[in-house]
Design the sequence.
């Protein structure tokens, strides 16, 4: 049982309602094909140093690929986890740096490091600020109801200061629907361009397939508006519509993205997914009916109790 602080205890699990609210039918894989600039061209771990640097930036590490996610995001473990490390493109959000909970499956870690590099390539000048993933061996983690199996990561929004320069707040900054930041981050605002680049990279990765990006509705609207301004393809916009969800209870996620990936095919069946199964689910979805009989209410709880506003 994950820790739940006062204020969150009475809140019901929310994910079943999220699933019911998810737009249907899910988009098809469409034109995201190997060879496309944003498509799954990199379906395997790059082997050479040059290849790795192309995907994850200069000095990119050769990640071990034998990690295993076991169980469910909210009742699971992580075996042979990989740690996200700071780089020229990525930093730990100050509030979480000392906790050391930056462990995930290699699919999740490469996703985060590659996305950070991609945003830096397209719009240089800022680092991706991550919050917590999982503990080194997974399991219960303070402040989260999920984050147990190496498949969840919290990511800070890219932020700008009053002059439009990138700025890195010490903690996640709460954002109004108009993009301005709430105290104590007055004067900062949501960086529409970089946050859009981040989301579109997360949703088009070939190795890690994203199930959810939990985020507030106002943020989702901003990302979609920027996607249209930037001429994003319809298939990418469809993925954004389907995967960005504001939890119906618990933390409203107006201060960070919570990204959850599906189990890698190699980790199944000991790694377990719950619905929704989007069109980009890797392989064949498990039998949903059996999963629901086993545990009808815990389809993806995600409380960030210590961060409730
Ligand atoms: Zn989270």
Sequence:
């Amino acid at each position: 049982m994950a820790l739940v602080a006062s204020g969150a205890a009475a809140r019901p699990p929310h994910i079943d309602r999220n699933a019911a609210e998810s737009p249907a039918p899910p988009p098809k894989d469409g034109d995201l094909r190997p060879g496309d600039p944003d498509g799954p061209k990199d379906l395997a771990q790059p082997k050479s140093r040059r290849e790795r640097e192309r995907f994850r930036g200069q000095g990119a590490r050769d990640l071990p690929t034998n990690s295993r996610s076991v169980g469910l995001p909210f009742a699971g473990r992580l075996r042979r986890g990989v740690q996200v490390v700071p780089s020229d493109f990525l930093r730990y959000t100050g509030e979480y740096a000392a906790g050391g909970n930056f462990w995930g499956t290699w699919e999740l870690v490469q996703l985060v490091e590659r996305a950070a590099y991609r945003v830096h390539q397209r719009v240089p000048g800022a680092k991706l600020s991550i919050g917590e993933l999982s503990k080194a061996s997974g399991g219960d983690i303070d402040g989260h109801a999920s984050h147990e199996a190496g498949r969840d990561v919290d990511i800070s929004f890219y932020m700008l200061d009053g002059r439009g320069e990138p700025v890195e707040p010490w903690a996640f900054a709460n954002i109004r629907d108009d993009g301005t930041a709430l105290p104590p981050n007055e004067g900062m605002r949501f960086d529409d361009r970089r946050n859009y680049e981040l989301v579109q990279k997360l949703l088009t990765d070939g190795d890690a397939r994203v199930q959810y990006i939990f985020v507030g509705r106002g943020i989702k609207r901003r990302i979609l508006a920027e996607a249209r301004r930037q001429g994003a393809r319809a298939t990418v916009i469809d993925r954004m519509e389907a995967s960005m969800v504001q939890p119906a209870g618990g933390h409203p996620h107006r201060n960070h993205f919570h990204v959850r990936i599906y189990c890698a095919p190699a980790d199944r069946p000991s790694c377990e997914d719950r619905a929704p199964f989007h069109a980009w689910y890797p392989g064949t979805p498990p039998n949903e009916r059996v999963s629901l009989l086993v545990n009808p209410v815990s389809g993806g709880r995600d409380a960030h109790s210590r961060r409730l506003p």
